[in-house]
Specification:
By secondary structure, the chain is an alpha+beta fold. It is built from 19 helices and 14 strands. Helices cover 46% and strands 14% of the residues. Strands 7, 8, 9, 10, 11, 12, 13 and 14 form an 8-stranded mixed β-sheet that branches. The chain starts with 7 loop residues before the first helix and ends in a 24-residue tail after the last helix.
């Protein structure tokens, strides 16, 4: 075995600049990606003898495996965070944990085709005609900047596509001069769109005028010995600067050459699984069975190695009691391909189930019941990324740098993201509906009657006494009680009007399940 090279000279020559560093093993495989505010100081720590003695076992094993290193300098630490996340997701190094799952950085989106557009946060960029800003490495700074921007440009925070006077009754932003109130025609549509365009310019970094005003206020506060206000303004300046530089960073990350080549990865997968043809259409299933409250599943489809989101599907498990991943997998696979065979009969080139032998056997029984005996299917176990095949006892374990395993990981992670997102959506909906459990006089039967009639909690909380009494079993006295109940919640919620409509009465005997 060749002797490990001495990296001392290479480490000493590293610049005192922010950036990312990549460690490689003796096979030139990337085993760790890290970010640093100062590359020279950070990387030197790994090779310092005294620090190495105090390091944990994982760090010692990492250092013993390093045969080479590579660095990339950037302009700031947040930029390094973005680049680190991109490289970890693509290379999936053995010693990295962060960024390997479905987490994504926040972005800001706005649909300029809406009559009265509003800015929203998202973690997924879609080809939907919306305008996107970001990604942003510092979510706290982004949220603070958006709140300031809405106040500065008097942009609305309400959710209706076209705000009306009905919405104005539930809004105080116009009164405190933080909204231009298009709902009551304080401004015309064209005037409001001008404000939105100014806000877009602000997010793109053209914010020197606002920064100048805040700096002037900060100096004035400091001169008057109002250090608390000066500190608050200084923090506001830092948030704005860190956020409005992000448009340039987004371009930087986008211009980094991608390590993902779908066509090559598909050929690698064909060879690894000994398939007759390249699997152009791959469908992957994942179960989100965190609790017995909502058991859900997802199915994602990749076409030619890329996500085909128009063919994504979400399922609520209907026939399984308790936590049983095997039975859940059997149900959703059976439902999916019973419908596919009934409607068009075009089965995918490869089916992937998230799990090991148990999930694979459950899915295989459903396919055989549908007489799909030759359908290619595998199970992907997450812990060691083992690939299980039907009627084959030993799994395939591929090197982590191969295109085949990286493609399967991307597909599995996307199915996992979709399933978890659906589970959280249903849990949030249930939490909102459970508000009525705390309303005096509203039984389960009456709650369901209200939900059937009004279709959503938002409509129930906005309903008048007359509208509530139109529901069977809801009398005038109970209707008044419901109106008072929601008015009280709204009053208590005034400190966070932009937050999700989730509330738990302090004296309630039936707690609302926590939202994840």
């Amino acid at each position: 075995m060749p002797e490990r090279p001495d990296l001392s000279d290479k480490v000493r020559q590293l610049p005192h600049k922010p950036g990312v560093y990549l460690y490689k093993d003796r096979l030139n495989k990337i085993i760790y990606v890290g970010k640093a505010r100062d590359l020279h100081k950070r990387v030197s720590q790994y090779f310092h003898p005294s620090r190495r003695q105090k390091a944990d076992l994982k760090t010692r094993a990492l250092v013993d495996s390093i045969w080479d290193l590579e660095t990339h300098t950037v302009n700031s630490e947040p930029e390094a965070i973005l680049l680190e996340g991109k490289l970890i997701k693509e290379y999936r190094p053995r010693y990295n944990i962060s960024f390997r799952d479905d987490k994504r950085f926040l972005m800001v989106k706005i649909n300029l085709n809406d009559p009265f557009p509003r800015f929203q946060l998202t973690r997924m960029k879609k080809d939907d005609g919306h305008r996107y800003f970001g990604p942003f490495a510092q979510s706290g700074a982004l949220r603070n900047t958006l709140n300031l921007m809405k106040r500065r440009f008097q942009l609305r925070s309400c959710s209706p596509a076209v705000p009306t006077e009905t919405d104005y009754k539930h809004c105080l932003y116009d009164i405190i001069k933080q909204c231009s109130a298009p709902c009551v025609a304080r401004v015309t549509q064209d005037q409001y769109l001008d404000k939105v365009r100014e806000a877009c310019d602000f997010l793109e970094g053209r914010s020197s005028e606002m920064l100048g005003k805040i700096e002037e206020e900060m100096r004035k506060a400091a001169a008057e010995l109002n250090f608390e206000k000066a500190t608050e303004l200084r923090n506001m300046l830092d948030d704005i600067k860190s956020t409005t530089r992000q448009e340039r960073r987004r371009k930087f990350v986008r211009d980094i050459p991608s390590t993902v080549i779908p066509e090559r990865d598909l050929e690698s997968l064909r060879d690894a699984l000994n398939l007759q043809t390249v699997p152009a259409v791959i469908e992957c299933f994942d179960i989100s069975n965190i609790s017995t409250t909502h058991k859900v599943a997802s199915m994602v489809q990749f076409r030619n190695g890329r996500p085909d989101r128009s063919n994504y599907r979400r399922y609520r498990i209907q026939t399984v009691e308790g936590q049983d991943d095997f039975a859940c997998m059997a149900e959703v696979v059976g439902r999916r391909y019973t419908r596919v065979l009934r409607e068009h009969g075009n089965m995918p080139d490869l089916i992937v189930v998230d799990g090991g032998k148990g999930q694979l056997s459950s899915a295989l029984r459903e396919l055989e019941a549908l007489k799909q005996f030759e359908q290619p299917i595998i199970g992907l176990a997450k812990e060691r990324e083992e690939i299980f095949r039907p009627r084959t006892p030993d799994p395939i374990v591929l090197p982590h740098e191969t295109g085949a395993i990286r493609l399967l990981q991307r597909i599995r992670d996307e199915a996992h993201r979709l399933a978890n997102g659906y589970h959280q959506l249903l849990l949030k909906k249930r939490t909102r509906e459970s508000l009525l459990d705390d309303c005096p006089g509203v039984s389960h039967k009456k709650k369901m009657a209200l939900l059937r009639h009004f279709k959503s909690m938002d409509r129930i909380r906005k309903a008048t006494v007359e509208e509530l009494t139109s529901v069977e079993s809801i009398g005038p006295k109970l209707a008044e009680s419901i109106v008072v109940f929601f008015a009280r919640i709204k009053s208590d919620r005034g400190r966070n009007p932009d937050g999700p409509f989730i509330y738990t009465l302090k004296q309630s005997s039936r707690p609302v399940p926590p939202s994840k």
